[in-house]
Amino acid sequence: MTTFKRLLFGVVRVWLGWQWLQAGIHKVGAPAWTGENAGAAVAGFVNGAIAKAAGENPVVQGWYASFLENFVLPNTKLFGYLVAYGEVLVGIGLILGAFTGFAALAGALMNLNFMLAGTLSTNPILYTAAFIVIAGIQYAEYYGLDNYLRPKVEHAAIEGVKRLKTRFARESA
Predict the structure, then answer these.
(1) For 139-166, what is each residue's pLDDT tens digit?
(2) How far apart are CA 146 and CA 3, in angstroms?
(3) Is residue 44 part of a domain?
(4) Contact criterion met (CB below 8 Å) for 35 and 29
(5) Which of 6, 69, 134, 172 is deepest in the core (most CB within 10 A)?
(6) Total domain count, the chain
(7) Could you tell me if residue 13 is inside a domain?
């Protein structure tokens, strides 16, 4: 049963990664995302989302439209790069099974923001798949680089904490 779970969650992880990679790969280098007109695609998306906050039954909540208008809209070039490269990196991380939990969470947060901006499309499906991967993380990362990276990262983190404790102990004395 454990092997079946590892395979099942691994397949979901790779499928989700492929969705993200496909979504982002064409954006990297595209003029409206990361090229000479970087941020234009984000500006169009954000302006559309802000427009959905008006009317009797708004699709976008006022607080989120305010966030988009006051924070994202003035920084559309930055967000163009963040979305394009973020989607590609989430895809690569999930496909390779490297930092799987972080990649799945980053993807879920992007999906959440797209949904808050009034865009459904495949976002609820990808959001749900990300949480399925997170819920079964011990299975999802087994057939991936995490199976090899995790012990090394945990060892480095433990050693780093030990060095910090020693340093603070010396400075406190």
Answers:
(1) 999 999 999 998 999 999 999 999 999 9
(2) 17
(3) yes
(4) yes
(5) 6
(6) 1
(7) yes
